[in-house]
Write a structure and sequence with these properties.
The chain is an alpha/beta fold. It folds into two domains: about 45-170 and about 240-275, Vaccinia Virus protein VP39 (Rossmann fold, 3-Layer(aba) Sandwich); about 175-235, no CATH class. It contains six helices and twelve strands. The protein has helices at about 1-25, 35-45, 45-60, 100-105, 145-155, 240-250; strands at about 70-75, 90-95, 110-115, 130-135, 160-170, 185, 195-200, 205-215, 215-225, 230-240, 255-260, 270-275. A seven-stranded mixed sheet has the order 3-2-1-4-5-12-11, with helices on both faces. It has a five-stranded antiparallel sheet with strand order 6-7-8-9-10, with helices on one face.
Length: about 280
């Protein structure tokens, strides 16, 4: 009799579990960081954009003015920009995410990488680099306090007349959540926001920017598998107005000498900026 009760209890628990999954298809797998990084690697893989950024870097970063170029790829992430840097220069990729660096090393097996946070000036020597690249969302994914520290560190690490190449969001009204050229845009009735939907073979990526006020935004992503379950990720960005951010660089003795509009590559929310350390 007790065995029958146990069997009935197990069946009841299974039914309840299945009902819960049907009612709550979205599960949070945020602890599965390694899987999330692999999914991000597939989603954010518009290689022609990274290649074009580095072609522009080669053209405008005054490489020929230096006998020995030494470059820091700040926030190297998955090593997507690093891959298209010139082969004959010294370069090191820095990131605070160990899993990203693992993927960077696989993508760039002969590359040099270091684990660390850009807010720590002790990571490198005074005036160690001729060039620093700070691409995509590296700077804005930090707190306002750390943004100030990082800009100060760029000044500390760069040689006199050293070059900083950076993406700056200069058209916040056109923030684009789409990670790929083939992403489809739609307006969600629940939040009244513009979402980007991207279909891949085994999962779908849904992303949206949400304004929290005071130049603070959340980039909300859902990696949805065919069963309906999903991995959710929220990244907070401090996207300062362009003039405010540029002034921070000027106050740290940088001068702006080149800005490149990327709208011809369907990028309307940020541009590529070239600054020179003036002391």
């Amino acid at each position: 009799m007790e065995i029958i009760k146990l069997i009935l209890l197990i069946i009841s628990l299974q039914i309840t579990h299945e009902f819960f999954l049907r009612r709550n298809k979205i599960e949070n797998f945020e602890n599965n960081d390694r899987l999330l990084v692999k999914l991000q690697e597939m989603v954010f893989n518009d290689t022609h954009l990274y290649k074009k950024d580095m072609e522009l870097f080669n053209k405008y970063a005054k490489l020929n003015e230096w006998k020995n170029v030494k470059l820091l790829d700040a926030g190297t992430g998955l090593g997507l920009h690093y891959k298209y840097l010139p082969k004959d220069i010294y370069k090191i990729g820095l990131d605070k995410n160990r899993l990203y660096l693992e993927r960077s090393e696989i993508r760039n097996p002969t590359g040099k990488f270091k684990l660390g946070n850009l807010n720590d000036y002790k990571l490198f020597q005074f005036q160690e680099f001729t060039h620093i690249n700070c691409m995509t969302d590296t700077l804005i994914s930090n707190t306002l306090e750390d943004i100030d520290l990082i800009i100060g560190n760029f000044k500390y690490w760069l040689k006199k007349n050293g070059i900083l190449t950076i993406h700056i969001h200069d058209n916040i009204e056109k923030l684009d959540p789409a990670p790929r050229d083939f992403s489809m845009m739609y307006k969600n009735e629940d939040d009244n926001l513009k979402h980007a939907l991207t279909y891949f073979t085994k999962f779908t990526h849904d992303a949206v920017f949400k304004n929290l006020g005071e130049n603070v935004y959340e980039y909300i992503e859902k990696y949805i598998v065919k069963s309906g379950n999903s991995i959710n990720k929220i990244t907070k960005y401090n996207i300062l107005p362009k003039d405010v951010l540029i002034k921070k660089f000027i106050d740290n003795d940088f001068i702006l000498y080149k800005k490149i509009d990327l709208s011809e590559f369907d990028i309307e929310d940020y541009s590529l900026y070239f600054l020179k350390k003036n002391i």
